[in-house]
Specification:
heterodimer, A: about 500 residues, alpha+beta, DNA primase, PRIM domain, 5-stranded antiparallel sheet, 4-stranded antiparallel sheet, 11 strands, B: about 500 residues, mainly alpha, Transcription Elongation Factor S-II, Chain A, about 5% strand, nucleotidyltransferase (chain A)
Chain lengths: ~500, ~500
């Protein structure tokens, strides 16, 4: 066992720098760790991919999932099954951004083998096609995607206008909770409204999260239907105009309502009261200090369609009025300023002249800041690649690991919750002789989440589906004979 | 339990009770070939009338009335054999090119819409339950979801009156019997807009939202079937039916919904209202009588001494249509193109002359291509540096305004026209331009073709020529609807067989 491992590690160390790295790993673990923290982008992730695929990458779990196979299968259906998985596209990104599309595999063994020889820096998963993608040219126009998980992609980059802490691909504990907020809103919506049950949430390994909705019904949605689901969840429609005057476009349902008490769509209503509003007030405002940043404060002000209310809020800001310390202890100035705005709006609404736009402006502000911002294009087409769970992000070296949606707040992407590939390899070395070595590394926890939150339920559903199909097949045979006798009866008339 | 047969019969009975067909089962009766042809020609007339009404900007109610009237006079009552047969006949006739398919689709959808609106409430409900497989809600479920349904109905954008009347409308409409429970996939358009309540994979659709869905569904299905029909035509219909249906279908197709297609008759000096046009006249004619699309291309070729492929194609066919003979066209393009540095006679002969001859049907497949219709121009999406397509669609508001002012159209009218173009009424905008530059004369029967614009313009500006060739004129120049019918009726008596 140990020897094989060393051999493989040796293989990856063919180039000089790798050998050096390896030595470093053996010499001083802590030093290495610190180095990695300081120079996150510099780590040559790619050199670690070969041992990662050889020892840690859970290709078995991945393949088993993508096969959607029941535990038992007759000979006939096993053949169908192979057909099904064989038509699934795997896209590899090789070193130097070389994309190799339309790979496909009939079993886990052949996938493993190909990973070993090609050593992709990244694996993307595409749709199941009508035919084996390897032979796509032979089928011409009839080669097309037929099935694919409904996927969602949310990137922190899309939140740059509401973050004061980081920008672009950077994330920190102050902005990451935005992703948890997104998980909470989407997960309940997908389950309650669309009835989906098998949803795998993953950390993308860098700056965002993905969702894979794997129910059979979701996999079979047409592109139009996917678009519809994606749009159903898209409220934020981009920011208009850069610089000073930003306008956030929202699609809310109707702008004006028939009468004052009108509500938003029930899904948005629930998201607002249960997730967005508490998150905004308790977590997001104090963390991002939006009310202390002139730029962000002005954006918020510009969304209040009443000069009177704006004036009151601006006065607080300019005079730098601070909250008095209440009985409960410190009051965050951001939360306090927001509450002042809320009060000013409510006071105005109680007045004799009602401005309908004002009734929804608080909701608009909160939605435009913290409602999930989907990269909807990813969801809209079956034929869109998405990075496979458990593969390593080439820039950060972090593994794309499952998140428990029920407990997403507990997931910390800055800890071993999102392990780095070199840390995993070190841990693995430590437990080297143990046959459960992988389970003891941080990957063990990730696999446990995968099993518990997603795979165990999907496995049961797969089996049920299989049983149902077998029964239907039997019935069809029966119907066929019935039909024949009916046809005979028809003839007599 | 009902047997399959009983179910089928029950469905058939229901189907007979409502007056609209989804055309999902081809008719299975024996009919005479002459009947086939008569029904088909009648439908061409019906669809032509619809298209003319659309392009002349008729209001929905007027269109509804017109369809009702025409359906009656042509005996194409919905679900009659004539109606079913003619629909399928025209599918074959109009399935073969993108622009024909689009034309057919637009008018058929309008026809369907009008018929669907005529249906009575109870029939409509039956139609919805049987044809669309929608289920009604049970009262327990309704009680549970009542408030949320109300919230959705209140904020839905796609249905019901707005403003003050909405409250009243909602009070009377928010009833269990008005809702249907459907798989969300079946009403994805509503899901997309969040105009429907979605629970556990089901959407709860209010009756008022169903119309729009039926329409999109009909359109999508027909569009798909036209594609299939085209495939089948190529695969076997054309060869199997060579002696029987093909001549009939081809003669229908050349009608292009009963209009002249502005082919090369003019350029060949054949029957024409305007006669042969020579190069030396082009500049003057462009100023006087070209529609904006042709003007734009003409200007571009004069200024840049070059046009990209699509632009060359559109202009060449247009010029052929107005009566510019091939020899003149070759000289025209050669003179202009060789003014551009780097393009000498040799290069022109090598790279461009073939294209000109091809447009005139003298190269390649030797098809005498017809000039682009408005629909085809509107469908084009020129990129930067290209001048083809419909300027009312492709120009920015400013550019369009400037172009119209150059044509000496008064500012208030320019504003109106630009507004129409902005609202996507490109043909109406173009017709308004015609009116403005032709002293209030307008295009009879609506504008549908750039060459029609030209010919009507010549007729207005130069009535003498028309008188000279009065006898011939009727055949090529678009005629008012009345005459058009005679024309097609005559063709029906003696179908023209066109070689493929």
């Amino acid at each position: 066992m140990t020897t094989t491992k060393n051999e493989t590690l040796g293989e990856s160390g063919e180039r000089k720098e790798d050998v050096k790295r390896q030595k470093l790993m053996e010499d001083d673990d802590d030093f290495e760790k610190n180095q990695a923290l300081v120079k996150e982008e510099v780590v040559d992730v790619h050199s670690l991919m070969r041992p990662y695929y050889a020892h840690i990458f859970p290709s078995k779990q991945l393949f088993e999932w993508l096969s959607y196979e029941g535990a038992t299968s007759s000979k006939e259906s096993r053949k169908d099954q192979q057909q099904f998985i064989q038509n699934r596209e795997f896209c590899f990104t090789l070193k130097g951004e070389i994309f190799v599309r339309y790979n496909s595999y009939q079993d886990e063994k052949s996938l493993r083998k190909d990973l070993k020889t090609k050593v992709p820096g990244k694996i993307d998963i595409g749709p199941v096609f009508s035919h084996n993608p390897k032979n796509r040219l032979a089928y011409g126009g009839s080669f097309k995607p037929v099935e694919r998980e409904l996927v969602f992609d949310i990137d922190m980059t899309d939140y740059d206008d509401v973050r004061t802490c980081c920008d672009q691909a950077k994330i920190c504990p102050k902005c990451w909770p935005l992703m948890n907020c997104a998980v909470k809103v989407l997960d309940v919506g997908l389950r309650e409204d669309f009835g989906f049950e098998h949803i795998l949430w993953v950390y993308s390994g860098r700056r965002g999260i993905h969702a894979w909705v794997c129910d059979e019904r979701a996999r079979k949605l047409s592109d139009e239907e996917r678009s519809a689901v994606a749009e159903y969840f898209s409220v934020f429609k981009g920011v208009e105009g850069g610089g000073e005057k930003k306008k956030t476009n929202l699609s809310f349902g109707s702008g004006k309502r028939a009468w004052g008490g009108g509500k938003m769509h029930p899904r948005l209503e629930e998201a607002y009261w249960k997730v967005l509003k508490p998150f905004w007030e308790k977590e997001f405002l104090p963390a991002q200090k939006l009310m202390e940043s002139k730029k962000h404060f002005e954006t918020i002000l510009s969304m209040i369609p009443d000069a009177n209310v704006r004036q009151k809020a601006e006065f607080d800001f300019n005079t730098n009025k601070m909250p008095t310390v209440s009985r409960d202890g410190d009051v965050d100035v951001n939360t306090w300023r927001w509450q002042r705005i809320v009060k000013a709006v409510e006071d105005e609404l109680r007045g004799p002249k009602v401005n309908w736009d004002l009734t929804s402006c608080l909701q608009r502000i909160i939605f435009s800041h913290v409602y999930p911002r989907l990269d909807a294009e990813v969801s809209k087409h079956m034929n869109h690649l998405l990075k496979a769970p458990f593969c390593v992000h080439p820039k950060t070296g972090r593994v794309c690991v499952p998140i428990d949606p029920e407990n997403c707040d507990a997931f910390d992407p800055f800890s071993s919750d999102a392990p780095k590939v070199h840390e995993l390899l070190q841990e693995y070395k430590k437990f080297g002789a143990d046959e459960n070595a992988v389970k003891k590394t941080a990957m063990g926890k990730a696999l446990e989440t995968f099993e518990r939150c997603f795979w165990s339920k999907l496995k049961v559903a797969n089996e049920e589906e299989k049983k149902k199909k077998m029964m239907m097949n039997n019935n069809n045979v029966l119907n066929e004979s019935n039909k024949n006798s009916n046809a005979a009866a028809d003839m007599e008339f | 339990m009902l047997t399959e047969k009983e179910k089928r019969e029950a469905k058939q009975l229901d189907r007979e009770s409502y007056n609209v067909s989804l055309y999902d089962q081809p008719p299975n009766e024996d009919i005479k070939l002459e009947e086939f042809e008569k029904y088909a020609l009648d439908r061409v007339r019906l669809l032509t009338a619809i298209e003319n009404a659309l392009s002349s900007g008729k209001k929905p109610e007027e269109l509804q009335e017109l369809i009702k009237e025409k359906t009656k006079s042509l005996k194409l009552e919905p679900k009659s054999i004539a109606d079913e047969v003619s629909h399928y006949a025209l599918r074959l006739a109009f399935c073969r090119t993108e622009s024909l398919r689009r034309q057919f689709l637009t008018s058929e959808v309008q026809l369907f819409k009008a018929r669907f609106r005529e249906m009575k409430g109870a029939d409509k409900a039956k139609f919805i339950e049987h044809e669309l497989d929608y289920n009604s809600m049970d009262s327990k479920e309704f009680e549970k979801l009542k408030d949320e349904l109300m919230d959705v109905l209140c904020q839905a954008r796609s249905t019901g009156p707005r403003g003050k009347d909405r409250e009243q409308w909602m009070m009377s409409e928010h009833k269990r019997s008005k809702y249907y429970k459907v798989k969300f996939e079946n009403v994805y358009q509503l899901v997309k807009m969040r105009d429907v309540l979605v629970k556990k994979g089901f959407a709860y659709v209010h009756e008022s939202a169903v119309d729009a869905i039926v329409m999109t569904e009909f359109r999508a299905k027909l569009s798909k079937n036209l594609g299939l029909a085209a495939k089948r035509w190529n695969a076997f219909v054309e060869s199997d039916e060579r002696a029987r249906l093909v001549p009939v279908i081809n003669s229908l197709r050349t009608k292009e919904l009963g209009r002249s297609d502005y082919g090369s008759d003019n350029a060949n000096g054949g029957p024409s209202g305007t006669g042969i046009v020579l190069n030396k006249e082009l500049q003057r004619l462009a100023e006087e009588s070209f529609p904006l699309c042709a003007k734009n291309l003409f200007k571009a070729v004069k200024h840049e001494h070059h046009l990209r492929h699509e632009g060359r194609r559109q202009l060449q066919l247009y010029l052929k249509g107005i009566g510019l003979p091939l020899e003149e066209a070759l000289v025209f393009f050669k003179t202009e193109f060789t003014k551009k540095p780097g393009c000498n006679n040799e290069k022109f002969e090598k790279d461009y002359a073939y294209g000109v001859r091809h447009s005139y049907g003298k190269e390649g497949k030797r098809v005498d291509y017809t000039p682009h219709s408005c629909m085809k121009c509107i469908a084009a999406n020129p990129s930067k540096g290209e001048y083809h397509g419909c300027p009312f669609k492709t120009f920015s508001e400013e550019a369009l305004g400037a172009a119209l002012s150059q044509m000496k159209i008064e500012p208030s009218k320019v504003t109106d026209i630009v507004k129409k173009a902005k609202n996507k009424h490109y043909q109406l905008a173009c017709s308004d331009v015609f009116e403005a530059v032709h002293g209030g004369e307008f295009i009879e029967g609506g504008l549908h073709h750039p060459n029609q614009y030209y010919e009507q313009s010549r007729k207005v500006l130069n009535p003498k020529t028309n008188e000279d060739s009065d006898g011939k004129e009727k055949q090529a120049v678009p005629t008012p609807p009345q005459q058009k019918e005679e024309q097609t009726a005559a063709a029906a008596a003696a179908p023209k067989v066109v070689a493929a």
